[in-house]
Amino acid sequence: MVALDVWVKAGATQEPDSWSGMAHFLEHMIFKGTDSIAPVEFDQIIENRGGVTNAATSHDYAHFYVTAAASYLAETTQPLAELLLRASIPDAEFDRERDVVLEEIRQAQDDPDWLGFQAMMETVYQCHPYRRSVLGTEELLMSLTPHEMRCFHRSHYQPENMTVVIVGGVEEAQAMDLTSQAFGEFSDRWECPKLVAVAEPPLVEMRRQELYLPRLEQARLMMAWTGPGVAQLESACGLDLLSVLLADGRSSRLVRELREELQLVQAIESSFSLQRESSLFTISAVLAAEDVERVESVICDRLGQLQSELVSEVELLRCKRLLCNDFAFSIETPAQLAGLYGYYNTIAKAELAMSYPTKIQAFEPLDIQRLARQYLSPKHYAAVVLKPI
Amino acid sequence: MKNEIHRTVLDNGIVVLAAENPAADIIAARIFLRAGSRWVQPEQAGLCHLLSAVMTKGTDRLSSLEIAERVESVGARLGTDSTSDYFLVSLKTVSADFTDILELASELMRSPNFPEAEVELERRIAISAIRSQKEQPFSIAFEQLRQTMYQDHPYAFSTLGTEDTMSNLTRTDLQQFHKTYFRPDNVVISIAGRISTADAIALVDRIFGDWKAPATPLPTLSLPTIIPHPKSALKPQETQQSVVMLGYLAPAVKDTGYAALKLLNSYLGNGLSSRLFVELREKRGLAYDVSSMYATRLDAAQFVVYMGTAPENTQTAFDGLRTEVDRLANSQLDDEELQACKNKILGQYALGKQTNSQIAQVVGWYETLGLGIKFDEEFQAEIAQVTASEARDAARKFFVEPYVSLVGPEAAITEFGLAAVC
Predict the structure, then answer these.
(1) Residue in A closest to B21 by C-alpha
(2) Which of B37, B97, B250, B262 could form a disulfide with B93, with the two C-beta atoms 3.0–4.6 Å apart?
(3) Is the overall model pTM greater than 0.90, yes or no?
């Protein structure tokens, strides 16, 4: 089994505002082929050989992947490179595939957690393109043209923006040869409108949004803070530890207090999302509408406690072990490992990926307190509340 | 699977399956009981879910917090779950911690004490979860379909049950079910990872070997006959999309036609080159999410094709899905299509057996369903042997008249109702 991953720095953050949705729509159109590959042909090549293929777009990247038997590596690398480098973005497929993206948007809009997440991103990021939906909006999508998309493609799908990752039962020399040959000839560069990036100012106030949704059964409380980007990887690891400390497992602080003891939530989670710039730290709860205020208040108290009291060695050790084990558990397959290297190389360098466990182990209670004080203010954060109408 | 599976039966009836996989410092165990929602009366639907939630909250010796701390302090994962056909305890650890967590799992299974306060809490949370499911149009559509297809067979219910049935469950119900079904002669323990098969078997014997099976036999299960009577069910919801589902009663895993329909399921809905994806999404732009499902079940399963689409396309979506299913009954796949599909399903199948958890799961599941450890090979051989005419015959037999489940804005689905009558 071999995983073949291509990561392109052509995520939603590369879009100027009027082209919001372009990166994701392009990811769809890549599969519509080139002058020498017809639509669906690539999918057939892969799947007829017992492989799987798919793609995903986020803020910092577009990610294309294939997993297949090692004996098929040559037969899969060549066409994948062809699609990525020489996408023709056929006019005839453009409108129809836009319909597919519109259906994707409609489906997302029927999901309250997706709506809540989008509202949260808009609230926590005032300037940074992370605030925009990767899917774009119907209005903006309808104004995009195939020519504009080709522009975006020829501008961003260039060698300095690409990482090819191959993991599995294949010789390194062979993999390198195949890749150099297949990824040899890129399209001519076109100039296209670029996003003028504005740095996100620090969050120094309270920001709130409350949404009333039809068909909602349980309320949601989502709290968010911005955190260090990949350039400060050590600090980012610390925030990972904090998310586990707060809400991973029944012995974690918030699960224990809010779910088990006070019994005020159906579920509570915390997560840290490492991004290239300005990562995202969230605490989310599913709960009854009448308990939102009290739960938010308890969470703020616990965050205050993290600033004033050191966590115990025992508690910190638990978190370290959880994260280090989860790290090991999450790279068992070639595809998982390829994804890890590809992501890290896209936002920084692949080598950093494996430094994670060492960085986690190095943390002391004082470091945790310092990070809590720096990043998790109980007074300044973004809060989105979803309530039933 | 390249790792050889060793199968042993302990004196008390526990089946132990072990596969050594030294690749990573990980050991995964999946412990199965033949005690899923299929064994639960409709009035008690949700019992296994509640049992799975409360089982980790206390034993004769340990409190909920002590249990949580024991697992989490070593960074291990231990969970319980229930499905229609089985109950599951799963654990994953680095090799050094495996013995301790397996011992804990044994304690949870053998001497849970179901603290009343925990039963209360988990029941309330389960009711919230049941309500939350109604937020997802796909879940509503699938729930509706399941109810119409299965009537009073236990498969009609979500594993969570309903608000009514969950509200009425008591601690005594949990104790009773546990006493009846949690016995060693009803258990399969499947282990994969950095542990020799000999050590794995010895460890299970040491920890579980003194668990005695009761003298009385397991109760026999009598299930209602499922009477086919296809019909449509509509649920108006003010949503952005309509969800359209067509369902057909289909073979259980041991019945004739299982392999042929697995193949047709892959043909229709698996991957970016699958028939539904190409015809309805790529060529017509009708959907983002369009696919098929055919689960492996002890009793009659559901073969389902579905799509989420703009409300004004509800009728078109239904016609599109129906046409594709009927086509399989009326014409044969050509040799190329058939071979391509076999390659696809067998390739995907192999990808589902990579991690230790996946290996432990697949191997243990087949044993629990009574298929034996050779089923992995047999299934692959059967798939390879399905002929185009067998596939068409299976389609002809099972894809006659669909059960239909629609969820969407009132105007869009009411229109459909009228069209269906005419």
Answers:
(1) A332
(2) B97
(3) yes
